[in-house]
Specification:
Number of helices: 12
Largest sheet: 6 strands, parallel
Organism: Fertoeibacter niger
Number of strands: 12
Strand order of the largest sheet: 4-3-1-2-11-12
Order of helices and strands: EHEHEHHEHEEHHEEHHEHEHEHE
Structural class: alpha/beta
Strand content: 15-25%
Number of domains: 2
Catalytic activity: L-glutamate = D-glutamate
Keywords: Cell shape, Cell wall biogenesis/degradation, Isomerase, Peptidoglycan synthesis
Pathway: Cell wall biogenesis; peptidoglycan biosynthesis
Shape: globular
Protein name: Glutamate racemase
CATH architecture of the largest domain: 3-Layer(aba) Sandwich
Radius of gyration: 18 Å
CATH class of the largest domain: Alpha Beta
Oligomer: single chain
């Protein structure tokens, strides 16, 4: 009954932590493609190929349902995977839709036509590849009209977080926020479009100033996954053991993950 959680590196651990709290009886297999991280500077074809390989590895662990806890993979690969590659008995879900549904105050599965919403000015902070894909704007357009999105590619932030350099990560976040505010001085909401960014949520909020609602993904994805599995329990795969897998150096990744999550995390070689 295992569910797979995939990320290019350590950012997806923020999502894993939330889904494990929400669904404590479900085993989760986490796979970090640390050998090829970060994805945010790769081409769409590279991201597609690497994501497909990772998902196949999670299928081998008995995970028929895989969560792409990586905004770059969700933005650059998910639609293509679902349309051209995914077998009918498997499911791969991304992390954009739950966030957009929360932003637009629409219920899960609400397929009614797009409509006016209260939030008109949205700041999106994401990796360069996610910004270039315009996947967030595309998904938003299915649900809302009249929303102005200003996207800021946050180069360097993921690398700094993965390397444990919080001082550099904080400085980069403040710089990226200031760059966006020069183009959109008064956003009503800010979307942290990378699963690494919740670790910097306080810095984003402070730099944006009061009155800007900051949307982060982990808890929203957890609630959506719980709802999905309640409706589709057959998608719980045959796996029974929770594991942490990495394509990188397991010891080094374990050390960084332990620092990242502030609790012991032990990875195995994928």
């Amino acid at each position: 009954m295992a569910v797979g959680v995939f990320d290019s590196g350590l950012g997806g651990l923020t999502v894993l932590d939330a889904v494990r709290r929400r669904l404590p009886d479900v085993p989760f297999v986490y796979l970090g493609d640390n050998a090829h991280a970060p994805y945010g500077v790769r081409t769409a074809d590279d991201i597609f190929a690497l994501t497909c390989a990772a998902v196949e590895r999670l299928w081998a662990e008995g995970c028929d349902l895989v969560i792409l806890a990586c905004n770059t993979a969700s933005a650059a690969a998910l639609k293509r995977m679902q349309e051209t590659w995914l077998p009918p008995e498997k499911r791969v879900l991304g992390v954009f839709v739950p966030l957009i549904e929360a932003l637009t105050e629409r219920q899960w599965g609400d397929n009614s036509p797009p409509r006016e919403v209260d939030v008109k000015h949205v700041a999106l902070f994401a990796t360069p590849a996610t910004v270039a894909s315009r996947a967030f704007q595309r998904e938003l357009a299915f649900r809302a009209i009249g929303v102005d999105v200003e996207a800021q590619p946050c180069g360097g932030v993921v690398d700094a977080i993965e390397q444990g350099d919080e001082i550099l990560a904080e400085a980069l976040v403040r710089s990226h926020v200031q760059a966006l505010l020069r183009r959109m001085p008064h956003p009503q909401a800010a979307v942290l479009g990378c699963t690494h960014y919740p670790l910097m949520e306080g810095v984003f909020a402070e730099a944006l100033g009061p009155g800007v609602r900051v949307f982060s993904q982990a808890n929203l994805v957890a609630e959506s996954l719980a709802d999905y599995l309640a409706r589709r329990p057959e998608m719980l795969g045959a796996g029974t053991v929770s594991r942490f897998l990495t394509t990188g150096d397991a010891r080094a990744v374990s050390d960084r993950a332990t620092q990242f999550m502030r609790k012991k995390v032990v990875f195995e070689a994928a």
